[in-house]
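Record 1 of the preview.
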Amino acid sequence: MSNIIVPLPANVVPDIGDPGWMSKGDNAWQMTAATLVGLQSVPGLIILYGGAVKKKWAINSAFMALYAFACVLVCWVGWGYRLSFGEKLVPFWGKLNVALDQEYLLQQGFAGKFPAATMVFFQFVFAAITLVLIAGALLGRMNFYAWMLFVPLWLTFSYTFVAFSIWSPEGFFAKMGLIDYSGGYVIHLSSGVAGFTAAYWVGPRLSKDRESFPPNNILLMLAGAGLLWMGWTGFNGGDPYAANIDASLAVLNTHVCTATSLLTWLIFDIIFFRKPSVIGAVQGMITGLVCITPAAGVVQGWAAIIMGVLSGSIPWFTMMVVHKKSAILQKVDDTMAVLHTHAIAGSLGGILSGIFAEPHLNNIFYGNYNQYIGLFYGFNTKQVRLGFRQLGVQLLGIIFVTLLNVIVTSLICVLLQYIVPLRMSEEDMAIGDEAAHGEEAYAIWGQGEKMDSSKYDVEAPIAAAKHRHAAGQVEMT
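->
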């Protein structure tokens, strides 16, 4: 049966679902990449946190991540996206506006051959994971109500500032030529510094929790870590905003650096602690992922391997040696060590980007051959001044992101103290999930009913045995 084509009336304009400026392939890849990044948070970091903490904190830790993901999305479409990528208000902030208008969402995004709706979703998952990473420093004691307020405030007054400054085409660091391919500064340095700063203001866990905080389920933690690693394909592979050769290079460099970093960390653990640590391997994996992020598509493979060796050794040294000997660092209870795995590793990646960024690859990504030249290639091409300039811009970016996050995060925490306690009470922290949410992570007896403590009372079995002996049922031994 043949199809019958009915022409539209002359006064009806057809809907254009495939505008000429859009690439279906790029749009499909961008949405796929965004979904991969989203899976890093939900469920990736949810189950990583849930498995990496004590049993009594499993629900609270996972829920902090889940809440942050949902809250950021609502704030993002309401005002966060336009503050980060909208029309310039000042050199570090966009104009306040919503990102839900159909006319706006269906037009071409500020970069790439896909609609603004795709860009809004892609940038959202990056903003969300930043807040989820901050949560890692605060596990095991932060008042959940304080966290509910912290998330929208920090997103609005910290994340949007840094994102616009570095990633928006109108941002002053973007115009200066800072290399942050996929978030070493905007996401990892920001979350590491903000998490450590917030941990200072919230205060530490209970002393017994700081002294002994074993994971309740290492296999679950590994499952979350696996989602984090594989999700990084979208994290770094999506930032060329196209399904092109640079995306392919970024993905390969990401996994090569990560594997090298994991193995390096593992070797250090074996040499100094005589045992290969699973938790240590996960830490090395994370530092490798973070370190390569600002450079993924602008360095060659050999540089990615060097970055992996350094990301598996320098954060290991700061965490295992410097932190343990520093009285100042010891005072701050950074539960998941985000200072080392994200702030230190992110800064390291930013510096190494300024050294190993290759001019030809920078030209593919940025479209400007003479502005982005790593120091190594500055010497090689006799453009030393440009190489030192690039390294200087990278260092200036680290200072900016660090200072901004220390100041803004501190102001937010001080403000919240007047609204709601930042820290749970000592009594509630001793209980954990049951006190915070009225729920427990695992029901390992019966059908999920509460454990009858009398069954585990030391005196009860003795009394029962005496009773049976008196009745002639058993003989006391």
